[in-house]
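Deviations from the work plan: none for this task. Representative record:
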Amino acid sequence: MKQFKKIRRWVLGAVLAFSFNACNFLEQPVVTLVPDEFAITNGNQAKVAARGLFHRLQDQSLYGERLITVTGTLADELLWVGTDPGNRELELNEVQATNISIGGVYSKIYETVHQANSIIERVAALPDDDAVIADVVRKDVIAQALFVRALLFFHAALIWGDACMPLNSNFESNLVIARTPNHQVLLQVVKDLKDAEKVLKAGNGGEIGSDEDRCVPTSTACKALLSRVLLHTKQYEEAEAYATEVIAAYASLDLYRFSALWTEENKTSTVAAESILELYFDISDNNSLAFWFETATNGGRLEYVVGPEIARVMKNKGGVARLPASVRGGTTTYVNKYRDVQNGTDRVKIIRLAEVYLNRAEARARLGNEIGAKNDLLTVRRRAGASTLVNVNDDLLTLIYEERALELAFEGHRWYDLKRSGQILDVMGNENPDTWASNDTLMPIPAREFFLNRNITQNPGY
Amino acid sequence: MNKLKHILLFLLMLGLGVAQAWAQSTITGTVKDTDGEMLIGATVAIKGTQKGTQTDVDGKFSLEIPVGATNILVSYAGHVTQDIEIGNRSTIDVVLSLTETEEVVVVGYGSQLKKNFVGAAAIVDAEAMEKLPVLTINQAMQGQAAGVQVISSSGMPGGGISVRVRGQTSLSAGNNPLYIIDGVPMVNGSLGQVGFGGQNTSSLAGLNPDDIESMQVLKDASATAIYGARAANGVIVITTKRGKAGKPVISFTMNRSWGKETNRITMLNSSQYRNLINEAKENDGVSITPIDTTINTDWLNEVFRVADIADYQANISGGEGKTRYFASFSHRDEKAIIIGSQFNRYTFRANVTNEASSRISFGTNIAASYDLNNRVNGDNNIYGVLSTAILCPPNVPVYTKDGEYGTWQFANPVATALEPRYANTNLKFTGSAWFKYKLLKGKTEGEGLSLRTDASTDYNGYIEDHFEPSTTTQGRPKGYGVYTSRTIIRWVVEPVMTYSKVSDNYNIDAVVGMTLQKTTDQQANATASVFPEDFKNLTYMRSASIKDGAFSTIDFRTLKSYFGRVNYTLKERYTLSLSGRADGSSAFGPNRRYGFFWAAAAGWVISDEAFFEPLRDKINLLKLRTSYGLVGNDQIGNNIWQRAWGVAAYLGNPALTTVRRGNDDLSWESSHKFDIGVEASFYNNRLNVNLGFFNTNTSDLLFAKQLPSTTGFVNQAFNIGKSNNRGLELEVRGTIIDKSAIQKGGFKWDINVNMAYASNKVVSLVDNNPIFSGFSSAILIGQPFNAFYALKSLGVDPETGLMMYEDVNGDGIYSQNDFQYLGSAFAPLYGGITNTFSWKFITLDMFWQLNYGNEIYNNNWEFIQTMGTDAWNQDASVLNRWRQAGDKTSLPRAGYRSAASINNNLSSSRFVMDGSFSRLKNLALSFNVPKNVAQKMKMQSARFTVSGQNIWTITKYKGFDPEVSSFGEDNTSAGTDFLTLPQLQMFTLGVNASF
C-alpha cells in the first residue's frame, strides 16, 4: 500500500509536469512585419504606406536600374558588354518571353500598382474622423498613389502596348484580368494624373527647398508628366498647355548648370535644381546604376557602355557643358551620369524641366508653331553649351528627337522616344540588321504571366 | 528475507546437530574475463541471500559462506552472470564471458529489440564510419544505409550536403531529416548570412563523427510517427559514445590526408582562344581586333593546390561502480584544394551517466565545438575563385610586370582567393541533462514504470568576419567590410514516462510524453566601406570611414507536443505497435496550429513458429513487418501564412510595402507512408537480408504558388500538390568466406550491400503549369522533382553549323512552348557496397558508392561553349566546333553577334548529361598490431591505416565531378553544375592506438 501511495504521488507529479502550459507558448511575437489588418489604420500609417510606393519605385527592376538599362539596351543608347545572357537578348532585340529583366519589370510594376490600389481603397475607407485621419492627409495620400499608378501604367503601355490595368486590389478579378487596349491605358494615365494634380500641392518651382519637394510628386510633377504622356496620345494642345504651366512656374533653364544635376550638388538643397521629380537614394537605400555602368577599376561591373552611334552624336553635338557630364572615354564610351559606385546614392530623374521644354517643343512642332518649338529647343541647347544654329532645311521634329537623345540620355527615354517618333524601325534596323523585326517594338508578356493567366494574350512574334 | 526465514525454519526443524555439520567456511578466488583480464568490482554473492562481496583491484575476492549455502552468483556488468556450485571447494576462479547482447534499435524515446522491431530502420555501421577520414556525420553516412542518399553539393570543406531518406518529398519545406543526437533535436541548415555562391555551410559540421557510437536512420511511419510533424523526411537518431565498465581506456587517432580534385576540365590556351574569337567575328562579319597572346595563364593551375588535411582525435572512456564516462577531444585542419580556403575545427565532448540508486539515475551529455572556416567564394558567383579561374581569359596575367594583379572584366582569380578575409566561425554547444526515477520496479532491470525528464539545449553562434581590400574587385575602390552574427538557441524540455512489462507470454512497453521546444534565432549584420588602406592592418570596421548599413532582428519558434507509443509482443513473435503525436507549432496560423500524426505497425517472426522448426538450421530468422501511418513536415518559414506588410525606407524615413499575401489555410505537409518488409538471417546469422518496399504519398505540398503579378504578388505560400515516392530497399550483410573460426587469423571476407531502387514523382500541382527554377530546372507533373526542362537539341546541321532544336508546336520559333522534359537529377538506383577482407593482422576495406540514372545540367558548358563572346574563356571541347560545310560535330559554329549565335546557345538537352557514377569511395588497408605485441608496448591495441578516398570514379559525365549541386540543397534545381568545386581525391595515412 505504501508503494501505491508513492506511485500516486509520482503520477500526480508527472501529470502536473505534462500539463504545465505556458499559456501562450505557441503565440510568439513577430518583430519584422506588420500583419495586414494593422497596416493602414490611421493617417500617419497611411503616410508611411504612401512613402512605401516610392521605396518600391527604387527597386532594381524599376527606377533603381532596369527601367533605364532595359530600355536603353533595347534602343541604341546602351551597348551591353557584360555577362547577363538576358541582356544579350535585349541588346540584339531577340528577347525571349522568359527574359528575367522583362519579367522583373512587369512584376514590380504590378506589385507597386497593387500597393497603390490598396492604399487608395483603405485610406478612402478609414472613418471620417480627424482623430484618425485628417481630410487633407487622406486626399494627399490618395493623390500620391494615383500618381505612382499613372507613372507605372505609362511604362506598361509603352513596353507592352496593350496592358493589364488593375484599378482595384480585388484578388479574384486581378487573377484573370485581361489586357486593356493601349490607348485606353494611356487615357487612364491622363485621368489619374489630372485627378492627382487637383489635390497635390504645387512644387516650389526649383527654388531652394527640401528633398520632400523634389522627391515626392507635386501638382507640378503631374503637369510635367502630363506634357509627356499627352504627346503619346497625340493631344498636343493640352501637352503644350501643361508644359507652359510648368515652365512658367520655374525660372529660365539657363540658370541651372547641367553638370550640377549629376553631382553631389544636386543632392544639397541649397542648389536650385531643375528636377521636378527625382527619386531619392541614400547609402542604406541605394541603387546599382553606377555599379553596372562603371569599370572594374572603379569598383563597378561594367555591364553597359554607351552605344556607338549615340556616343558619336554626343561627341559631335553634345555641347561643352553636357558632353562631359553625360559620357566619357575614347573608343569605348562610358556613361557618366551615375558615378557613385561606392554608395549608390545617385538620384534618378523621373521628370525634369529640360524634358518639359522638349515636350513643349515637340507639341509645338506638331501644332505647326515652328518658332516656339525652335525657341524651346534652343533653350535646352544653350544650357548644354551646344550649337544654337538651326539649319533651315532641317526637319524640326528630327532635331527635337535628336536633342532628346542627347539631353535625356541614360534617363530611360530613348526607346520610348524612338517609338513615338516612328524612327525605331530605321534606327534599330541599322543597329541589328540581322535580328531586328518590327514586332520588337513591343516586349513579350513574361512567360509566367502568360501561363498563369490564360486571359492574357501574347504579343505577336513571341 | 522470506526465503532465508524459510531456510532457517527448515534448519531448525532438522535440528541443530545437522547444522553443525555445515560449519561456516571461507572461499577465495579470482574473477577474470575471457581475455584473461582481471575484473575489478565484480560481484560475488551467495545465492538466495543478500550477502556478498566485490573483487578487489587485483580481481580477487574472499567470502565467508554461511551454513547451508550451496551456490554463489558471480556477476559483472556487460558479462554473463554465473551460478556456481560451491561443493567442497575453498578456491574458485571464475571466467566471465561477455553478454551476447541482443541487437537493439535505438528509436525515439527508447530502444527496442531488433527482432521485435516492426518499423523500418537502417543501422549505420559505426565501425565502417570510423574507417572513413571524413569531416561530417553526413559524409560518414554516405552509401552506408539503404534508401539514404547523401550528395555533397561541392568539394568545399564544411559545405552543405543533401541527405534524402527515401527520396525527396517536399518542394519548399525542407527535405532534411530530423537529427536527434542523444535525444536533442539539432538545429540544422545554413547559418551564414552572406552568400558564397550556391554553397551553404551546415550547422551539423560541428559534430565529430568519431564520437558516434550508433546511428540509425528511421524511415517508415511507425518508427518516426512519434516525431510527428518533423518526421516526414525520416529521423536520424545518433547516440554518442559512452564509457564501459572497467579501467579507463585512452585512445588516440591521427589521420593525415593529401588530396587533389577528382577531375579537371581543360580550358583553351591563349592562341586557341584568339583563334576562336577571330573565327567567331569572321563568321558574323564583325571586324577583328588584335588579341595579345604573349601571356598564357593556366588559371586552373593557379588556383588548385594539393589539399592537406590533418585530423587528431583523443578520447578517454571507462566506468567504475555505477558511473560511466566518456570524454573526447578532436582537432581537424583542412586545407582545401582551392587556394585561400581552409577549415579548422575543435570538438569536445563529455558524457557521464550515473545510477545513484536502484531507482534514481541521471546523466549529462555535453559537447562543444568551434570551427573556423576561411572561405572563398564559389559556384555561381562572379567573385568565385574557381568560377573566375574557369572564365578568366588565358591572356590575362596573374600579376602584371608592376606586380599588380592582372585585371579583366571580373575578379582576378588569385586575388579573389588570397586577398579578402572571409573568416567564418561557429561556436556550437549542445548539452543535455536527464534525470530518471523508477516509480515502480519490475522483475528485471528493464521492466517497471519510470519517469525521465530531459532538458537540453543546442546553441549555435555563427560569426562572419569579412574584409575585401581594394586589391579585389569587390573591395574597390577603398575596401569593404561585413560583419554578421547569428545566434540560434534551442531549448527542449521533455518529460517522458515509460512502462515495460515482460511476462511469459507477452511483452508490453509503452511511452507517453510531452515536448516543449523553443528556438530563438537572432541576427545582426553591419557593413562598412572606405578603409584606411595606407595602413594595411586596419581591416576592421572600427577604422572604416563610412558605415554603410546595419540591421538586427529576432525570430522565435515554438513547438508543444504530446506523444505516445505502445508496443505489444505476444509469444515473442507477434508484435503490434501503435504510436501518435499531437504537435502544435507557432509557425502556423491559429486555424491550423495543431496536427495529429500516427502510425500502426505489425510484425511476425515466422521463424519462431513451431512449423518452421525443420528450416531453422538454415534460416535462423524470418520476420515479416508492415506499417502504415501519417507524418508531417513543418520545415517552413515562420508565420508565412500571415498576410503582412514590411517596413523599408524612403527619404530617410520608414516606408511600408506589401510583403506577402499570406494564406489562412496553410497547413502541414503530410506524408502517408506504407511500408512492408521481410528480414531474414541464414546460417546462424552469417547472411542477413533485409528487403523492404515503401510507398509514400505526400499531400499538401508546401510551395510558393505562382500568382500573376497583376494580383500584386508573384506568389503565395500554398499547399499546392501531391508527390509520391516508392521503391525497394535491399540490405545484405554476409560473410562469404570465414576461415577465422577454424583457425585464428584465418581469411575472412565480409560483404555489405545496400541498394535502393526508387521512383519519385510529382503527382499533382494546383495549376498544371510547370514551375521554373534554377537555370533549366522545373517542377513538372508526372516527373521527378528537379526535372530538367528546356529545348530538345537535334544536333548541329552539318551544312550551316547551326544548332537544330525540336520546334514542338511548329510555330517557327524556339520558345518555352517548345520545352520538353529532359531527365532529372533524381537517381532511381543508388547504394553502396563494402567489402572487407581480413587475414591475420591485415584488413582491406573497399567501399563503392553507386548513383545511377540521374542527369546533370552542365551549365558550365552553356557558358564555356558559347563560342560567341570574348568576355570569358572557353572549354577545350570547342576545338571540335563546326568550321565548314560538311563538318559533322556536336558543337555549332562560332558566331559573334548574330541571331544564329544566340540560337546556338539556347538552353537545351545539349547540356543535359548522364550523371550516373560509381565511385571507389574508400580503399583502406589497415594493419592491426597483434595484441601480444601491443601489450608489450603497454598498449591495448594499435592500428595503422593507409587509405585512398574517391580514388576511382566511373562516369560518363563530362564536367568536373558528377557529385555536384550548384544550388546547394535547393529542392527544385538540384543536379545543376555551374562553376562548382569538384570533390577531393585523397590519400590518407592513419594511426590509432589505445592504452
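The CA atoms of residues 280 and 722 of chain B lie 48 Å apart.
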